[in-house]
Design a protein that fits this description.
By secondary structure, the chain is an alpha+beta fold. The chain has 12 helices and 14 strands. The protein is 32% helix and 24% strand. The strands form 4 sheets. The protein has a 6-stranded mixed beta sheet with strand order 10-12-7-13-11-14. A 4-stranded mixed beta sheet has the order 3-6-4-5, with helices on one face. A two-stranded antiparallel sheet has the order 1-2. A hairpin with an 8-residue loop joins strand 1 and strand 2.
Amino acid sequence: MAMDYKTAGVDVEAGYKSVELMKKHVKETMRPEVLGGIGGFSGAFSVSAFKDMEKPTLVSGTDGVGTKLKLAFLLDKHNTVGIDVVAMCVNDVACAGNFAEPLFFLDYIACGKNYPEKIAEIVSGVAEGCKQAGCALIGGETAEMPGFYPVDEYDLAGFTVGVVDEKNLITGKDVKPGDVLLGIASSGVHSNGFSLVRKVFEMTAENLNTYREELGKTLGEALIEPTKIYVKALKSVNEAGVMIHGCSHITGGGFYENIPRMLPDGVHCIIKKDSYEVPALFRLIAKEGDIAEQMMYNTFNMGIGMLLAIDAADVEKAQKALAEVGETSYVIGEVVAGEKGITIC
């Protein structure tokens, strides 16, 4: 029998259809700096708009959705994980400066079989994330890899580039004793800790679709909630005239891994557990998994997706700015002199 690419498991026609279906979503993310359109071998983005900066500096980030994708497969819901992949990248970039603006994004989807409608659904989420972040979806790749991935599964990763004036980079050197730690609320588990979550809960359609009184929704709805994008939140703080001394995106590794990354030597963060109410989802995970408190704070965001170290005098101004863009924030601790690290008490 004559062989061709399709008999090997790769349907190029399905690839063409995927591109056609996703074009409308991509178009909605365009910025005036984008040159050309979808379909080329690369994306072009003009940097001439940033000539007013003294030293325009590019900042970049890359990440994936991780094993949260298993949840999307079980729920057959594919229009939110794209938001997750954008959030994981742009949040890292946004906390790099006062203000570090994400400019453009690229995605990578690898799948066992290209179902054009499913690919378009995934990309619709990526486009929604880009719109929330204000960046352009400038390119991407869909790779059909039969025999490598199961036919109904895929992996999803992303890459973003942003810009900040070099003098406004947040390096942590300005974090000092007396600074206040301002936490911005998360939307849930975000896209971290799902290997543990999947051990805690029985990952069946019945269990995921069961309404949980303490959550006010089904378990699946609570877990699939996309990662919050903090770009506009950090921009609002900057526009309010508040200088962020340190900024930490609370992802995998929770408080214990991520907060020290924003600290210089000689300072220590004190986190007050009773300064805000840990959301019900995290309490449920801890209870059903019999997970120690220290492990919870070392794995999950515990309701705080982004942490800022700012002057005590700027707290009211920052919280007002955040509230105006719909963000809930809490004063959850302070910076003191001491060994680099954190204490949760």
